[in-house]
Specification:
Elements lengths: L8 H14 L5 H8 L3 H14 L19 H12 L7 H10 L7 H10 L27 E8 L9 E8 L5 E7 L4 H15 L4 E4 L20 H8 L3 E4 L7 H20 L5 H19 L19 H4 L2 E6 L5 E4 L2 E5 L12 E6 L5 E5 L2 E3 L1 E6 L12 H7 L40
Parallel strand pairs: 1-4, 4-5
Antiparallel strand pairs: 1-2, 2-3, 6-9, 7-8, 8-12, 9-10, 10-11
Length: 440
């Protein structure tokens, strides 16, 4: 009686070759070349075919459970952790935590399969491939640093919304600076850049987008400056700023930000971080682990960073600087405030002199003349007027104008007011109530 065999395409190819071998229409060496097997293995298959027929070529492992299958205990522990402690994690990050923190032995594909079966992960549809010109990485560490900011719910509602500033080296793909700030501004980038300079030195160039912090996008007519405040500061430090024409051009930092948006909030959730201060304190540890996982060796061992020199006065350079002309009565106006210059020299010596007003992040003002500070006093402070706010600063400007707080329970407003109807009622009101006033 004929027996129905289940054979794969590979086994059917072997059957055809064994039939030719048994009929001596093919040599064993030629059979090994066709099947990509050694002559010894061909002899073993031929012997099994002669003894058992086609059944001798069927794999003995078919229908049997794998020896490397996951145990029920490991599956149960993994699923419990994926549904509780590591809820919302992707398969790759979840596998890292299960192996490194929980000491479970399973592959990343096993984690992906478990999450898919339990509905914890859904495979995304493949995006339409967009072809962009490939740009090779720079050769040296510090030759080009890509910078960008990412507004995101980094603390998953445990703290106020903020922006993460990201500095990544182009040659190695390593994070060189991360910092949580309130918004993208000159002072936030200056603070992050100062910390980076003091650790590594000055890079050759920064690669950024066309944010108005880095580039004057709409130069006005006249003698307006062609450099932004950040551009002026980097020019003094001999650091070039290059602006990308498209987001794809600085795709390295864009892709890193996507990875950070997935990994960093979950890492801070596991550590119970609920504030910017605690987040910034944790970032160096996160950067070290991130760079160990994803960093690459540069093509050149040369470090292109340049050390800071005594002339690189970061406290002065990384300030908001504007030029003013001193009036005949030795006053200048800056940010709606009139400053009176105090000097012992004759007043005519400083008339129409050009001075530089420096404003730091702590809103401290320094007036420099020929590089030396001038003493001053505040003469007059004008009322606030309408100010120009960029699109990225609009949310921050609206947050500062909060609604007034609710009145206290014992506030007089909560005790009622006199109305025409209430005057005709015998209502006893406290003496301090405004309704006790007589209206004539």
């Amino acid at each position: 009686m004929d027996t129905l065999l289940k054979m794969s395409t590979k086994e059917l190819s072997r059957l055809e070759v064994m039939q030719k071998l048994s009929e001596k229409r093919m040599s064993q060496k030629e059979a090994g070349r066709i099947l990509s097997l050694s002559v010894r293995q061909v002899k073993r298959l031929l012997k099994a075919y002669r003894q058992q027929g086609a059944a001798g070529l069927v794999s003995k492992h078919r229908g049997r459970r794998s020896n490397n299958r996951l145990s029920a205990e490991v599956k149960r522990k993994a699923l419990n952790l994926l549904k509780t402690k590591y809820q919302g994690f992707g398969p790759t990050l979840a596998h890292e935590k299960l192996v490194e923190k929980e000491k479970l032995k399973l592959s990343d594909e096993s984690v992906r399969l478990l999450m898919t079966e339990e509905g914890l992960w859904k495979a995304r549809k493949a995006k339409k491939i967009s072809v962009h010109q490939l740009r090779e990485r720079r050769a040296c560490f510090g030759e080009l640093v890509q910078i960008d900011g990412s507004p995101h719910d980094w603390f998953e509602g445990r703290a106020e919304a903020c922006v993460l500033l990201v500095f990544i080296d182009d040659a190695t793909g390593q994070l060189v600076q991360l910092r949580f700030v309130e918004s993208e501004s000159f002072f936030s980038y200056a603070e992050a850049a100062e910390s980076y300079f003091r650790r590594y030195g000055k890079p050759v160039a920064f690669y950024s987008d066309k944010n108005s912090i880095f580039r004057v996008n709409q130069p006005s007519a006249g003698t307006s400056p062609t450099l932004t405040q950040f551009g002026r500061a980097m020019q003094e430090l001999d650091i070039e700023i290059i602006c990308a024409n498209t987001p794809q051009a600085k795709g390295r930092v864009e892709r890193v930000i996507q990875t950070l948006q997935d990994r960093l909030p979950k890492e801070m959730r596991l550590r119970g971080i609920h504030s910017w201060e605690a987040g910034n304190a944790y970032l160096p540890e996160f950067m070290q682990d991130f760079n160990a996982r994803f960093g690459e060796e540069p093509r050149s061992a040369v470090d292109a960073h340049r050390p800071l020199t005594p002339k690189d006065d970061l406290a002065r350079i990384l300030t908001w600087q504007e030029t003013r002309s001193v009036s005949k009565n030795l006053t200048i106006q800056f940010e709606k405030v009139v400053y009176q210059i105090q000097t012992n020299r004759p007043s005519y010596a400083l008339r129409n002199a050009q001075v530089t007003v420096c404003l730091n992040a702590q809103e401290e003002v320094t007036i420099l003349y020929n590089g030396r500070p001038l003493p001053y006093s505040i003469y007059h402070q004008q009322a606030k007027q309408a100010q120009v706010v960029s699109a990225k600063q609009l949310d921050l400007a609206l947050q500062e104008k909060r609604l007034p707080s609710k009145p206290a329970p014992d506030h007089p407003w909560r005790k009622g007011f006199a109305t025409p109807l209430s005057r005709h009622k015998n209502v006893t009101t406290p003496k301090s109530d405004i309704s006790t006033l007589e209206i004539r």
